[in-house]
Amino acid sequence: MTKRNLYDFSKNELTAFLTEQGHPPFRAGQIWQWLYRHYATNFQAMTNLPQYLRIALAENLEIRTPQPIDIVQSTDRQTTRTLFQLADMEAVEAVLMRYRKRRTLCISTQAGCAMGCPFCATGQMGFRRNLTAGDIVAQALFYARRLAARGERVTNIVFMGMGEPLANYAATWEAIRRLNDPEGFGLGARMMTISTVGLAPAIRRMMQEPEQIGLAVSLHAPTNQLRDELVPVNRRYPLDMLMATCREYIDATHRRITFEYALMDGINDTHQQAGQLADLLAGMLCHVNLIPLNPTAGSPYGGSPPERVYAFRDRLQAKGISTTVRLRRGIDIQAGCGQLRVKHQV
Ligand code: SF4
């Protein structure tokens, strides 16, 4: 009989499971803390549980940690990328980026992706499956365990790895709740950001959630014509609908939206396009991150050269749009979304 994975339990499910087995409900809180605060990987480590319970748990459950099958570090050692193999042999990536004070983790919410963005390695592999909440949090726990060994902790999480998080809404949100739980992982909601290519109905759904998660929308193009090509889901939720939803989101939450814009050489990085983007965002409570594209092997899309990146930024700023150029982290370790997975072809 296949044992159930402890990561697949919500806190309520774990409490119900233990109660059914005749154990007091407070044991669920203890186990939860071992899992999400101490990052335990086996039941014997849970030393405040009686031995009979640890044995009983191990007979019925397992803590199925994702297997790291490749870990690569950038030459400056500030970025670490891990390819994990899941129990069903699917593989997903997560990246840790070290900044002076922050330790930011970028995690995946799907194996593959159905959105088909042509510049993205994950988009090219197609959709494999949704990750469970357990698959998602296990990526964070893996890195938290490694950082804890050095006296450090995860300070920020971005749901910006493989997949479209809002296309796997329920599991992503369950993962957010677990990571936010003060009795568990305890990461503040404002330290987490969901990145989407713009699934307008799901953005509207996010407005109803109590957790104050950050929202990043990947625009990549200032016109429908170009965006239809670069972000095909634009045909379903075109720019006017998406921008109206974003304005609604800001009105409802009073939170700033980050717009991600991957600058691609000769595709979306002209002076005119910077002006069009500024017009699109005029008057919005927002910030733009400009990221020169991480080139993917075999793709016709390349990153813009620095002079065009800074000219684009200057044009946006001159039009009053708050803008930052983001460093291309880990360019030497295939740190574009899905690139490591493609290399392994698992
Ligand atoms: S860029 Fe994001 S949404 Fe587009 S295909 Fe890649 S993973 Fe999917």
The share of residues in helices is: 25-40%
Determine the N-to-C terminus distance: 26 Å
Which molecules are bound besides the chains? iron/sulfur cluster
CATH level-3 fold name of the largest domain: TIM Barrel
In sequence order, what are the helices and strands, one letter per element? EHHHEEEEEEHEHEHEHEHHEHEHEH
Please identify the oligomeric state: single chain
Count of alpha and pi helical runs: 12
Side-by-side strand order of the widest sheet: 3-4-5-6-9-10-11-12-13-14
Please compute the radius of gyration using only Cα atoms.
Answer: 21 Å
Largest sheet: 10 strands, mixed
Topology readout:
Blueprint: E1 4-5, H1 11-20, H2 26-36, H3 51-60, E2 61-62, E3 67-73, E4 79-85, E5 91-98, E6 103-106, E7 110-112, H4 121-125, E8 127-130, H5 133-148, E9 156-159, H6 169-180, E10 192-196, H7 200-206, E11 214-218, H8 224-230, H9 239-253, E12 257-263, H10 271-281, E13 286-292, H11 306-318, E14 323-325, H12 339-344
Parallel strand pairs: 1-2, 6-9, 9-10, 10-11, 11-12, 12-13, 13-14
Antiparallel strand pairs: 3-4, 4-5, 5-6, 7-8
The chain binds iron/sulfur cluster.
Quick description:
The protein has 346 residues and is of the alpha/beta class. Helices cover 36% and strands 20% of the residues. The chain contains 12 helices and 14 strands.
What attributes does this structure have?
346 residues; alpha/beta; DNA polymerase, domain 1; 10-stranded mixed sheet; two-stranded parallel sheet; 12 helices; binds iron/sulfur cluster
Describe it.
The protein has 346 residues and is an alpha/beta fold. The chain folds into two domains: 4-62, DNA polymerase, domain 1; 67-344, TIM Barrel. Helices cover 36% and strands 20% of the residues. The chain is built from twelve helices and 14 strands. The strands form three sheets. Strands 3-4-5-6-9-10-11-12-13-14 form a ten-stranded mixed sheet, with helices on one face. The protein binds iron/sulfur cluster. Iron/sulfur cluster is lined by residues 113, 115-117, 120, 122-123, 162-164, 197, 337.
